[in-house]
Write a structure and sequence with these properties.
Layout (H helix, E strand, L loop, with lengths): L12 H10 L44 E12 L14 E10 L10 E10 L4 E10 L6 E2 L5 E4 L2 E7 L2 E10 L2 E11 L4 E2 L5 E3 L7 E16 L2 E14 L9 E9 L4 E8 L5 E9 L5 E4 L4 E10 L6 E10 L6 E7 L5 E2 L9 E9 L10 E10 L10
Antiparallel strand pairs: 1-2, 1-13, 2-3, 3-4, 5-6, 6-7, 7-8, 8-9, 9-12, 10-12, 11-12, 12-13, 14-15, 14-23, 15-16, 16-17, 18-19, 19-20, 20-22, 21-22, 22-23
Length: 391
């Protein structure tokens, strides 16, 4: 099914209002900023360290949780000529495909709602495009299997075809022009369980957490209409309820794929003033072995500022990061490949955030110029205070 309109389905205004404004309270006084308790307004099942994830089932949907998302961010390059290394091919575009599943507020017996975000960062034309649309849960139209990864939305189909392979099929009308993307992706690393066996804490309280897993390095052919390309993709799946404390207004998320085969996930939560409240991360070595990062082992520093011409939100223009861990240390600069990769759907009442492809470079020294260490995707939320995320 092709998507014929920017917005698919007929959803009440309160649905969009609740998704992005109702799952957390509005601004809280400074005296509450130290409060790490979750803000509860429903009885969906919270994340728990006692929950043991099992696959492929837990790649699928969890309607007993209040929110859930499946997240693909990828770097697209030409197919290497015979005898040439694929990793040496220059990135020509980045893309994001995200499907959100939202449980109805205080109505656990009602169907879920689905929202899709699609973004394309064209590094050849230096243009960024994004598309957002939603639909109520309906068999064959908008649904996600509870048995394994199988997602259907208008113009979008995502299927786990084997324990380590995922098929993407996108066929939509985008600004009146057909956009067709197909990819068969394979992971040579096992699924990554972030935190404690997939239980990812967001604050000190037990329920301030989510269940968070990834395939950190999916690779495979990608067809853009009839053009044959290659993609390296990061896949996240996260679900939970009441995950964030009252003081949190957003987060910064980093997904690095380094040229030596190591992958790195870092996130930090922040308040409305941009003050960090919690940090965590995971190193994944080339064989897929994971190393949990403690907050004290992560240093993140925003560099300068970029102001959105669309929303007037102020985002960090780049980042410096440092990891001090026995398994692997890292000092790097994270530089967006396009300044403007902001996703704003104010017309639908959706949250605004920055999500885009970046280059990972070594910091220059007096004796050595900066050099490429890898590629990354960066997400920054909560900087448009009029449209903060609410989970």
């Amino acid at each position: 099914m092709k998507l014929r309109n920017f917005f698919s389905g007929t959803l009440p205004f309160w649905f969009f209002f609740w998704i992005f404004f109702g799952a957390l309270p509005a601004a809280v006084p400074d005296s509450a900023l130290a409060d790490s308790a979750p803000f509860k307004r429903h009885t969906y099942r919270p994340a728990s360290p006692d929950r043991r994830l099992a696959f492929p089932r837990d790649h699928g949907a969890h309607p007993d949780s209040s929110y859930e998302w499946w997240y693909f961010t990828g770097h697209v390059a030409p197919v290497a000529s015979p005898g040439k290394a694929q990793d040496a091919q220059p990135e020509i575009a980045g893309f994001e495909l995200t499907v959100f599943r939202i449980s109805p507020l205080a109505q656990p017996d009602r169907p879920s709602y689905f929202v899709a975000h699609l973004a394309w960062s064209d590094l050849q034309t230096r243009k960024f495009r994004h598309l957002s649309f939603g639909s109520p849960e309906k068999a064959g139209v908008a649904e996600a299997s509870q048995d394994h990864l199988k997602i259907t939305m208008p113009g979008i189909r995502v299927v786990l075809t084997s324990p380590s392979e995922i098929s993407l099929d996108i066929d939509v009308l985008w600004e009146g022009i057909p956009f067709q993307l197909k990819s068969e992706l394979k992971s040579h690393k096992p699924v990554t369980l972030h935190g404690e066996n997939g239980y990812s804490k967001k604050a000190e309280c037990t329920e301030c957490a989510s269940h968070y897993t990834s395939f950190t390095r999916l690779q495979g052919p990608l067809a853009l209409k009839t053009e044959k390309l290659w993609a390296q993709v990061w896949f996240d799946h996260e679900f939970g309820s009441n995950s964030l404390g009252q003081s949190i207004s957003g987060w910064d998320w980093f997904a690095l794929q380094l040229t030596d085969g190591w992958d790195l996930m870092i996130y930090q939560l922040h308040d409305s003033q941009g003050k960090p409240a919690h940090r965590s991360g995971t190193w994944v070595d080339p064989a897929g072995k994971t190393y949990a990062l403690e907050e004290k082992q992560i240093t993140l520093s925003p560099v300068s500022q970029w102001t959105s011409p669309h929303t007037d939100a102020h985002y960090p223009a780049s980042w410096k990061l440092s990891i001090d861990h026995p398994a692997r240390s890292l000092k790097a600069d994270l530089l967006p490949k396009l300044s403007d990769q902001e996703i704003s759907s104010r017309g639908l009442g959706l949250a605004t955030y920055w999500e885009g492809t970046c280059e990972v470079k070594s910091p220059p020294t007096p004796t050595q110029a900066a050099h490429k260490l890898g590629d990354a995707y960066l997400e920054m939320t909560g900087y448009d205070l009029k449209r903060p995320p609410r989970f």
